[in-house]
Each structure stands twice: as C-alpha cells, then as structure tokens.
Design a protein that fits this description.
By secondary structure, the protein is α/β, with parallel strands linked by helices. The protein has helices at about 20-25, 50-60, 75-80, 100-105, 120-130, 145-170, and strands at about 10, 30-35, 65-70, 85-90, 115-120, 135. Helix 3 links the parallel strand 3 (about 65-70) and strand 4.
Length: about 170
C-alpha cells in the first residue's frame, strides 16, 4: 500500500455505514478503532443508534475487532459503550499516540492490521498516521458551530481538496 501524506486519510466515506467488514478484510484490517462523536453519532446521542448497533454487529460477524477512541469525557464514552462492552478509551488525547498504542497492545493486533475511523483530520487522521494505522475519514454528522471547530474545519479544506484532486487524477488514469 502506498504511503499517504501525514494529514491525508487512506479513504474518505460519506458515512461510517459504508465501511464494511469485507472492505476492511480486503485492506488487511482486522481491528477498527472508531471515534464516537460526529463519526458514529451526534454529540446529542448518548447511546448507539440502531444503525450503529447493526453496523457494529455486522463488523463483528465479519471478524473485525472494534474499539472506541474518543477525546470526550469518561462519562460520555462509558454511557455510549455500556450496552456494547467493547474496548473504549475516553480522554484519548488524539492525535497523541498513547491511547491508540494501548489498544494495539491490549488487542494484540499490529498497526498494519488496524485502522482508525473518524471525522477530523487533525485528531483522527493524524493519530492514525503517527501510529502507522490506516485512516478512514467521514464528514461530521452534525458539527459544532463554535469558533474553534469552524476554524478547524476551515483548515481541513486544503487537505481534503488535495486528497480528492489526487484521487480523481489517479482514477482517471486507470
């Protein structure tokens, strides 16, 4: 697999639901770390939706180990994961590597068999890259409108544009 630039995901999807066990297995991925907020559910959804539950069940049935890596607070992550019982790390400090590396150690999967799915380039994609994981990006479900998040999304645009431009050129040459 060709090495991507530091702030580019390996793939961009329109929704988490597009990431299937078959796709992951074809990429050599056996473990998937997922961000929660704005990746799987909105900040307003305290628990997994039925769509998220069905997707997680399909991944597990397809042999994919799933865990959660969130920068949110313990109470939020624990409540979301309570009925699922999966690996979950709150206050992960992404893009710092520590929490992702803890998952690798506890799961026994090497970085090349692990991917991270999230909605932010500067936290999720960068964390994946720093750990040697594949990175999959989805657009935020319902973004916060604070100045901080608006600025972050603005700064992501050039990277998304460059990724899509390069992807379109490589698809046309095939």
């Amino acid at each position: 697999m060709k090495k991507q630039p530091l702030l580019w995901p390996d793939e961009i999807f329109s929704s988490f639901a597009e990431v299937s066990a078959a796709f992951l297995r074809a990429r050599g991925v056996r473990a998937l770390l997922c961000d929660i907020d704005n990746t799987l559910v909105t900040y307003d959804d305290a628990e997994p939706t039925e769509a998220v539950r069905a997707w997680l069940d399909a991944l597990r049935a397809g042999g994919i180990t799933v865990g959660f890596l969130s920068n949110n607070e313990n109470a939020r992550v624990e409540r979301f994961n309570q009925s699922l019982g999966l690996y979950a790390k709150a206050k992960a400090g992404k893009p710092a590597r520590r929490a992702a590396l803890q998952f690798l150690q506890s799961s026994g999967f090497p970085p090349q068999q692990t991917a991270l799915l999230g909605d932010q380039i500067f936290t999720d994609v960068l964390c994946a890259r720093l750990c040697g994981l594949q990175s999959f990006l989805v657009p935020p479900i319902k973004d916060k409108k604070t100045p901080f998040f608006r600025a972050k999304r603005f700064l992501e645009r050039p990277f998304l544009h460059a990724f899509r431009t390069r992807r379109n050129k490589s698809n046309k040459s095939k």
